[in-house]
# Entry
Amino acid sequence: MPTLELPALYADTVASIVAVFRPLLANRDPGPGEIGVVLESAIALEIIDPGIDGIDRAGTRVWVDGELAFDGSSVPELQPGFDGPRAGVTETLDTLRIVIDPATAFLSEALVAVRVVSQANGGVHVLDQSYTFRAEDRTAPRVVSAQAISQREVQIGFDEEIEVTGATGFSFEAMSLPAVPISPVGALATGTTVTLIIDTEMSPDVPYRVVVSGVADVFGNAVLAPDNTTTFLGDLWRFIACLQEAFDLLLAEVDRYPDIFDLERAPGSFLDLILRDLGNPFPFELDELAKRRLASVLVEMYRQKGTAIGIENAIRFFLGIDITAITAFTGTTLVLGEAELGVDWELGPSDLFARYAFDVEVDVPLSDTERRQIRAIVDYLKPAHTHFVDLIEPGIPPTFDHWELGVSELGVETELH
# Structure
């Protein structure tokens, strides 16, 4: 005895909805917001009056994408172009069912708008409602471009997301000779691009034509001629190489940025800024080499500030002069009965001042500029509580008029020394 399977329908949950408005638009197929609707689908809907009046058939109209498809007041009710073999109208006491069969299929991915206008008998209760649904995608993907991204890789772009259905479904043809024949050995789809792996390196400077098959979009639409072919040349590398050269130069400039605060490599115009940033307290005119040297030792000078060795090192650095000694201040001593004020004796300072006062001695004669610079260096580097009094330098050596035998007279032209 043969086994038969009969279709069955069961309901998990039944909910009671109390209608507020009437008439009601129900049982729509395709439903509101539905996507992927078959292009050849009919449009079915029911207008229901939950009250006792029933639906006014003559007052009912349906538009599809702005075109009148059903008019209950005209003969025929179903308008030409929407009266296919599946079309029909069924009326009961409280329901008007309308099936519209468009003669022309919907466009791929079209958004179809349906408007329904109706009323209950007596014209008291009116319905004017619209809804939309979207047709399925039957548009075949198109090849947009192809680029050789390396000697054994080709990237093909499409106008929509695609999937590879056959990794070897691609063929290549060289557009000029001599050229090496190439074939794909693998394919990887990522979004709207497919990357092909070639069995051998392509010939340089030879354009190739690629014919695509074995590719479909996510809805299963395969790529079709004439949108399945394009040509390419290994020029992406050249183009990127041009950009890379400019970027390399830019990166080289970026890599040189640390040079502006490098003491040895900084441009001369930045040396003053480096010294200013280090807080250079010395207002001396320096050449570029001296500025670099000062920037390299300035922090160490700060560490030695307030010490005798710091003063000696700074004067040696700026002037190349070695200090003979830093001595405690000694004023002219008063000798009772002999010293004369303002002649060989001067009024000295207080004991507290003398305790923290000092002199600086050098063993070479100084110019006025050197004296100013030494005083500026010492005043900055000395301990704050001390007093720099005098800069002692060697005096002019005495000159003697020597004795010439037979000519000089003692006490007249020469003196004994």
Remarks:
- The chain has a mean pLDDT of 84.
- Helices lie at 236-255, 268-277, 288-303, 308-319, 351-355, 368-381.
- The longest strand covers residues 111-119.
